[in-house]
Amino acid sequence: MSEYKKGGGMIRGIPHDTIESNLPILAVFVAILVAVGGIVEIVPAFYLEDAEPKVEGVRPLTPLELEGFAIFRREGCFLCHAQMIRPFRDEKERYGHFSLAAESQFDHNYAWGSKRTGPDLARVGGKYTDDWHIQHLRYPRSVVPESVMPNFFFLEEHPLDTSRTKRRMEVLASMNVPYSADDIANYEADIKAQAGVDDGEGEDALRARYERKTWEIDGVVTTWSDSFEPTPLDVRAFDGDASDVTEMDALIAYLQQLGTHIHFEEGVDYYHDKFGHAYRE
Amino acid sequence: MSDHNAPNDGSTGHEWDGIRELTNKPPTWWAWGFYAGLTFVTCYYIIYPSTPMNNKVQAFVNGITGQEVFVHGHTKGIMGLLHINDYYEGENWTQAEIDNLKAKGYNELKIKAGDRKYLDAWTAVNEMRDDVHEIESVRAKYMEKVKTMTADEIIADDEMRQFVLGRTRVIFGDNCAACHQSGGQGVLNKTDPGNSFPNLTDDDWLFGGWTDKIIETITDGRQAEMPAKGGNEDLTSADIDKLATFIHDGLSTGDAVLNDDGELVKGADNPTFAAANELFQETCAACHSANGKGANLNGDYDTGSANFTDTIWRFGGSLATIKQTITEGRKSEMPTWGGRLDPTTIKMLAVRVHEFGGGQPKPADE
Amino acid sequence: MSSIAEKDEYNYDIVKFCVITGIMMGVVGTAVGTWIASELAFPFLNFDTAEISFGRLRPVHTNTVIFGFGGFLLYGAGFYMVQHATHARVAFEKIAWTAVFLWLFSVFAFWITLPMGMTQSKEYHEPEWWIDIMMATSWTCMTISYLGTIARRKMSHIYVGLWFFMTMLFMVTYIFVFNGMCIPVDFTFSYSAYAGIHDAMTQWWWGHNAVGFFLTAGFIGVMYYFVPKHANRPIYSYRLSVLHFWSLTFLYVWVGAHHLHYTAIPDWTLSLGAGMSIALIFPSWGGMINGMMTMSGAWDKIRTDPIMRFMVVALAFYGMSTFEGPLMGTKSVNALSHYTDWTVGHVHSGALGWNAMISIGAMYHMITRMWNTEMWSAKLVNIHFWVHLTGAIFYITAMWGSGVLQGLMWRAFDEYGNLVYTFADSVAAMHPFYALRATGGFLVFCGFCIMLFNTLKTVSAVKAGTNVTLTAEAQA
Ligand code: HEM
Ligand code: HEM
Ligand SMILES: [Ca+2]
Ligand SMILES: [Ca+2]
Ligand SMILES: [Cu+2]
Fold first, then answer.
1. What ligand has the least distance to the C-alpha of C63?
2. pLDDT for position A16
């Protein structure tokens, strides 16, 4: 009996015997214990507020870019390409300013990735021309001999399926991505306008919708300062062919806007806060 | 089942399917490690920003301690208080602030720096600033000079030239090599010649091959467009054949030579050349110039039209490709790097491009 | 001590089904793993076909090995050990079978949908929402049946292996459900309920704890039954069991943030993850020590018994990857290792070394016990061991090499303060390592084929009555 007491029964004063011979008690202890860490780490980020000014410039994706993002997901690009530049000197030189929380605040789902088989894409927007992207996506090794990226030439052959776009925008709007009713109603015209297949007809309307400075997020209206000019949208036949909208148009439109929303000032490091926005130091 | 009858055999007396448990203590080294781990984590949370807190609690605690234990909703850690970071030169310290910091006990020598947050805590961004500062000071010796020198001066100074070539290997590799390849040799796309990227190592230039022009090319990008049929819709396929032959077998081989007025000084006796030249002067010379040497050699550095009097081809020099170029036209674009790369970096890249081998001196009349 | 008569009352059909399915999943999962590994070494193997291109096939690999292979091992070994450790038959058998079949259908479903590009794009949570629902239902059924069986136990105390299983059942439910929260667009697409940093944190709360509870706590539970049972030795230290069980259960949950070091997640969250990662070494090692020390007095078995060898080497790999993991969980090491193949090497030292080896050991044990037979060929079991081990070592060393090299190349500055390597240089440098990894993977795949072959032969020998039955000692 004494042996038993030493080894079993009480552990540091806790009557373990009782716990391990009673299923409900064991179950409840376990169920509570495993919840703690997650709650402490995840929940506060939703409510902690910060008084500092927020960065300006981050807008939701246009319908065409949104479809491009869906293709990015579909092809598993995020498994080889991160979109999250870390605050390191080498990454600063290679990729540019580190990524801010605000830059992915509308990203359902986040696309930071966890592996860089290929380079980080967080600021690839505007780095190359559409022609290069077309050539590279078709046959990566024709321009980068070392590449191990698969060929994606078929994207050009697939007309973009826009049957889900409206629903996509509605779903996102229901989760505080600031698409207005007007944005959603005009998704089709906006796609055509941005891919340059409408002879420029819808361009002004498209720009008015997405180059705006006032956004309503979660019932709060934010207006960017007068001095801030939103980054102009890219509007053109991304796949080099203005006769139709293909998956290539959408994917390149998506790639070309990555990392271009915020205007970083030279020499200023921007901080990130826990609220999904960012502020200047 | 004999759950509560602990035997004297060093086991707990429990048994499941023949499996018993001994009452051995965990190994001492394990126990030490276990507690050391818990101690470590406690210290770690004190040193680094770690504990989230409600704004009210935060204000309350900060009020009591008179210190910013919490900032922006979490503890900031005592790293800053330990004076572990270094502080760098900056202009935005006022004397009053410096006095205040000294009063708080900061080392006077270290108060040279730019911002308060940096003094206060460990953050990932502060850590980066340290690292960036470190690497920038390594290359400062050269970079200070690079900033003040022109690209041509750098090329003339052997040490600086070497530094800049070293510095731009990766910058060129990560930004430009996607199109121009790591050695600057460009890409000749055989299946789709229109999607070729120019060779930067030869001495044929579309937009000027001296440093000022190269800097202009990189900073503002370039768009060159050759319209289908040179913009002349009346061109028949027979005409195109003639033109292509004229360029391929005449101008480029030297069998046909044009003077600056567009007259054939050699090859006029070949009837195809003569007929083609008429078309050429009518349609193509506007861009490729009367002498066929392209815009660049005639002092126009913006059009980017090709020179036909050499054997260097932008899209590959087969007769078929030339016909395709004329029939379908060409359009290509070099992206704009101003804004993405800073002017010093662009200057250094221009040095690299110039030194690929084809760089030209600035012409006397420019 | 359970008698043979008692064993007859156990439901072995469900276990047999899960074990055989699990082995097949191992074959498929490693085949796909070898394929994608080869794609990275020789990109022409994408064959210009969207459905088998790397980006679409990779989740087929990860989900098949984790949920197919790992899942069926957990279901099979779980039902086996819960019966043995409670001396009771599986409770709610219809519900248990429902769990098994829903799980199987989920795997079939993602085999079809993932190559079609339907993905939630969250790692190890790629299958779309309706497959999530099937999996969650299956998991709930498993939980009900499992707890039901424990409730029927013939002794007052619950065996430590089952504590670990319970911890897994609860935690995986939480994380799977919360990370799966989304709004469907249609059957082919959904958007996560969270965006940006919140989505990232939720994902890695899941991602890490899928490792911590599914691939660790569950498998530790399995270890706690099969190692002492196969070695026929008592568990070394009860006190250690208790300490490391509660500490592991509590601490593991905190460390998911180490997957996001230096990202836009607030620094304080990442510190929480980094600190706990270090504190986690010893709780993790508790399981290894308890397993290893249990071997004392039975070490000679390692020489003669390849099944025992699988289990012991598994424990060694477990110890190694739970030392490596915490190191990688610190900010400074992670700064180098994150985004590189080092992570992949770490994953597979856990996966191929720990998860696969302990599973294989447990599977061989169960096969011999359930069919009351020796394996058809003991030699093939031995060959399987060496082939698997060689393959795993090739894989892991290749990825350490490539990972560290990659990390160092990315951050290398020369003495003038300039970056030394372009990104493309680093891609080119990976090639030999990728080829070696594919070779290692192929060996592991061959091992699984040998196992499947040997198992099928064993079962048909039993049917034909030509097998060698177990000794009485082994039957006990
Ligand atoms: C104490 C134990 C462990 C700790 C602290 C730990 C820590 C880590 C860390 C820091 C990473 C890298 C995250 C990144 O940089 O992206 C990682 C990745 C990973 N670990 Fe562990 N690890 C542990 C044990 C294990 C075990 C036993 C397995 C079993 C298979 C495992 C499976 C994985 C997987 C699958 C990933 C990849 C996650 C991704 O997709 O990025 N880990 N772990
Ligand atoms: C034949 C054996 C195997 C081979 C050749 C193999 C190959 C691979 C490859 C090529 C990747 C992708 C790595 C990358 O993106 O760079 C991968 C990822 C992964 N594999 Fe395997 N694998 C094998 C077995 C396994 C097993 C048995 C498991 C699990 C129990 C497993 C779990 C994983 C996980 C969790 C990842 C994701 C890692 C990450 O995201 O960091 N693998 N595997
Ligand atoms: Ca990963
Ligand atoms: Ca188009
Ligand atoms: Cu982890």
1. 2
2. 84
Is this prediction's pTM over 0.90? yes
Average pLDDT, rounded, for chain A: 88
Span C35-71, pLDDT tens digits: 999 999 999 999 999 999 999 999 999 999 999 999 9
Q: What is the mean pLDDT of residues B317-334?
A: 93
Residue C69 domain-assigned (yes or no): yes
CATH number of residue C194's parent domain: 1.20.210.10
What would the two tokens of residue B123 be?
């953050």
Residue A131 and residue A10 share a domain? no
B211 token code pair: 């440093």
Same domain, A30 and A67: no
What domain count does chain B have? 1
**B306 within some domain:** no
C271 interfaces chain B, CB cutoff of 8 Å: yes
Q: Determine, for residues A88 and B175 on separate chains, whether the beta-carbon distance falls below 8 Å.
A: no
Q: What is the pLDDT of residue C312?
A: 97
* Beta carbons of C58 and C119 less than 8 angstroms apart: no
| Domains contained in chain A, number | 2
Residue of C282, C328, C352, C406 to test ligand 1 pocket, by largest number of atoms within 8 Å of CB: C328
Whether residue C374 is contained in a domain is answered as: yes
Neighbours of chain B (3+ CB pairs under 8 A): A, C
Token pair 């399926």 is at which residue?
Answer: A161
C241 to chain B: which residues are within 8 Å by CB? 21
Q: CB–CB of A27 and C43 under 8 A? A: no
Question: In this structure, is the dihedral angle defined by the CA atoms of residues C430, C436, C442 and C448, taken in order, positive or negative?
Answer: negative
Total domain count for chain C?
A: 1
**Interface membership of A4 toward B (CB under 8 Å):** yes
Amino acid at A162: T
In this prediction, residue B206 carries a pLDDT of 92
Q: Which residues surround ligand 5, an ion (CB under 5 A)?
A: C 208
**Parent domain of B24:** 2-47
The boundaries of the domain holding residue C62 are 12-475
Instruction: Determine the residue of C259, C276, C285 to mutate for testing ligand 1's pocket, defined as the one with the most ligand atoms within 8 A of the Cβ atom.
Output: C259
Give residue-wise pLDDT tens across range C106-155: 999 999 999 999 999 999 999 999 999 999 999 999 999 999 999 999 99
Which residue, by CA, sits nearest to atom 26 of ligand 1?
A: C350
C99 domain-assigned: yes
Whether residue A270 contacts residue A280, with contact meaning beta carbons closer than 8 Å, is answered with yes
Residue A92 and residue A151 share a domain: yes
Task: Give dist(CA C177, CA A38) in Å, integer.
Answer: 13
**Phi, psi (degrees; rounded to nearest 5) at C278:** -65, -45
Name the residue range of residue A237's domain: 49-279
Q: What pLDDT, in 10s, does the model give residues B13-69?
A: 888 999 999 989 999 999 999 999 999 999 999 999 898 888 788 888 888 887 778
The whole-angstrom distance between A52's CA and the closest CA on chain C is 15
Is C86 in Cβ contact with B16 (below 8 Å)? yes
Radius of gyration (C-alpha) of chain B in whole angstroms? 36
Domain of A207, CATH number, reads 1.10.760.10
Each residue's pLDDT tens digit, B93-133: 566 766 766 666 555 544 444 444 445 678 888 788 778 88
Contact B170 C283 (CB under 8 A): no
What integer is the mean pLDDT of C206-220?
A: 96
A38 and A149 share a domain?
A: no
Contact C58, C51 (CB under 8 A): no
* Ramachandran sector of residue C232 (left: φ over 0; alpha: ψ -120 to 50; beta: rest): left
DSSP A234-258: P-S-TTS-TT--BHHHHHHHHHHHT
Q: How far is the CA of C209 from the CAs of A29, C121, C217, in angstroms?
A: 18, 18, 9
pLDDT value at position B58? 82
pLDDT category of residue C306 using cuts at 50, 70 and 90? very high
C348 within ligand 2 shell (Cβ under 6 A): yes
Contact C136, C178 (CB under 8 A): no
Q: What is the ipTM of this complex?
A: 0.93
Check residue B152 and give its pLDDT.
95
Mark whether A179 and A194 lie in a shared domain. yes
